[in-house]
Amino acid sequence: MEEDQLICTCFDVYKSEIVKAIKSKELTTLQEVIDVTDAGNGCGCCHDSIQEILDEING
Ligand code: FES
Fold first, then answer.
1. Cα of 1 to ligand 1 centre, how many Å?
2. Residue 52 alpha carbon to ligand 1 centre in Å
């Protein structure tokens, strides 16, 4: 299994949680991921990483 990755250090949100939220709730935008997971709700450093995950899943 691929090693989990800490994406948002402000809120301790891992990649697996973000992937799960995107898939189960069919999220398509950065703002939706922020609202649902809290990832990205702080300094904003992780926004690019969250967007990459969104692109990976939604193409
Ligand atoms: S690292 Fe995600 S908001 Fe700061």
1. 25
2. 15
Is 42 near ligand 1, meaning CB less than 6 Å away? yes
Kind and range of the H or E element at 14? strand 13-14
pTM of structure = 0.93
Nearest CA to ligand 1 atom 1: 8
Q: Which domains does the chain have, with CATH numbers?
A: 6-58 (1.10.10.1100)
Question: Apex CA 33: angle with CA 17 and CA 23, to 5°?
Answer: 55
The pLDDT confidence band at residue 2, using thresholds 50, 70 and 90, is low
